């Protein structure tokens, strides 16, 4: 009789892949099922700015700081990786909101979050490649922040997944949780294929509430539609992620940029088949706004863009842990999937295998909605 615990993980994004790999590293047997390919949903279109800037609940801040720490540990093993870099984060508000920026800086300092308040003419000496003319009054630079390209991180983790004998099921369609005697017993694919399991993790982004609703569990879903644009290569020396009133910009592998924001959400059209479209001129406008932030204002040309739902629980806080109504079924649903990707996989895998609840996840339990 084998004592190996078998876990089925629904979702090929960063939370599913990370948890699957952490489970395998601890000796579990894992089947990972993805509706389409890996990183085909939110993970493939995330700005993936790794941070805990601004104001949020203390437990959420502590978890995010731990999340960034795990990336710092990974970065230290090979600082030359093009897809994970610690170049800091730079943000500013619109003209006339300098006092708002100052208040944010004061709050960050009060919780010992590394924060520097800069005048426009000080930016160049702190972080390269920024056009200071785009900054109306002041800016905050957070040196400890970073960015990751999640598809490349996923590929890196999947090397371990395959080496450790994980079972990958791609193009599984909508996967549901099967229940036996009130307990999660496995999963079933859209084609009717079944996989028995001792525990199940539902980590399929904005679709997570719909999957657990079939089990009689309600998790409020506040996921908006969003877009990520990747530009064609352009010469630049930007190292920081920029969060500004009209564009959020981060460096991306291959001398490209990743761009997003929310001002154009109402210009996105969702079609009956679940696809999305946006006028080309809106995509170019985002690229033009981004160009204004970069020294020399290089012409940014969109190479590709992806649109879909950005996972955000209804109350904005992460949802992690076992469903009280369905023992053996766990969920991972959060807006900060990139920042929490490594730490969430680590802590959830421990809970799944040992049954011991980690105190850092105490306030994020799905039972708070019951």
From TrEMBL:
GO MF annotation terms: oxidoreductase activity
UniProt name for this protein: Fructosyl-amino acid oxidase
PANTHER family listed in its UniProt record: GLYCINE OXIDASE (PTHR13847:SF289), SARCOSINE DEHYDROGENASE-RELATED (PTHR13847)
Transmembrane segments: none
Keyword annotations from UniProtKB, A to Z: Oxidoreductase
Pfam family, one: DAO
UniProt xrefs under SUPFAM superfamilies: FAD/NAD(P)-binding domain (SSF51905)
Enzyme class: oxidoreductase
InterPro entries assigned: FAD-dep_OxRdtase, FAD/NAD-bd_sf
Enzyme Commission number(s): 1.5.3.-
Ranges of residues in domain FAD dependent oxidoreductase: 6-348
Cellular component GO terms held in the UniProt record: cytoplasm
């Amino acid at each position: 009789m084998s004592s190996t615990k078998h876990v089925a993980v629904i979702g090929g994004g960063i939370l599913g892949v990370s948890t699957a790999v952490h489970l395998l590293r601890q000796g579990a047997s894992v089947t990972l099922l993805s509706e389409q390919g890996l990183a085909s949903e939110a993970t493939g279109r995330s700005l993936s700015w790794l941070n805990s800037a601004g104001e949020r609940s203390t437990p959420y801040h502590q978890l995010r700081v731990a999340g960034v720490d795990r990336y710092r540990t990974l970065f230290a093993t090979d600082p030359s990786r093009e897809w994970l870099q610690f170049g800091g984060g730079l943000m500013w508000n619109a003209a006339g909101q300098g006092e708002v920026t100052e208040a944010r800086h004061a709050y960050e300092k009060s919780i010992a979050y590394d924060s520097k308040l800069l005048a426009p003419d000080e930016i160049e000496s702190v972080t390269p490649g920024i056009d200071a003319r785009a900054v109306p009054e002041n800016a905050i630079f957070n040196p400890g922040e970073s960015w990751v390209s999640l598809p490349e991180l996923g590929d890196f983790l999947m090397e371990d997944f395959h080496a450790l004998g994980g079972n990958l099921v791609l193009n599984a369609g909508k996967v549901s949780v099967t229940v036996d005697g009130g307990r999660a017993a496995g999963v079933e694919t859209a084609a009717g294929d079944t996989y028995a399991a001792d525990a199940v993790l539902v980590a399929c982004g904005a679709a997570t509430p719909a999957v657990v609703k079939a089990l009689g569990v309600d998790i409020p879903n506040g996921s908006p539609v969003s877009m990520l644009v990747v530009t064609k290569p352009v010469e630049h020396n930007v190292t920081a992620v920029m969060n500004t009133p009209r564009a959020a910009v981060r460096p991306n592998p291959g001398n490209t940029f990743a761009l997003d924001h929310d001002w154009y959400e109402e210009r996105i059209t969702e079609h009956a088949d679940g696809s999305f479209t946006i006028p080309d001129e809106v995509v170019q406008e985002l690229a033009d706004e981004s160009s204004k932030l970069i020294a020399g204002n290089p012409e940014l040309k969109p190479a590709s863009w992806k649109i879909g739902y950005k996972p955000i629980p209804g109350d904005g806080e992460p949802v992690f842990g076992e469903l009280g109504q369905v023992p053996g079924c766990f969920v991972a649903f959060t807006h900060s999937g990139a920042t929490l990707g490594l730490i969430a996989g680590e802590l959830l895998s421990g809970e799944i295998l040992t049954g011991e609840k980690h105190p850092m996840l105490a306030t994020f339990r799905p039972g708070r909605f019951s």
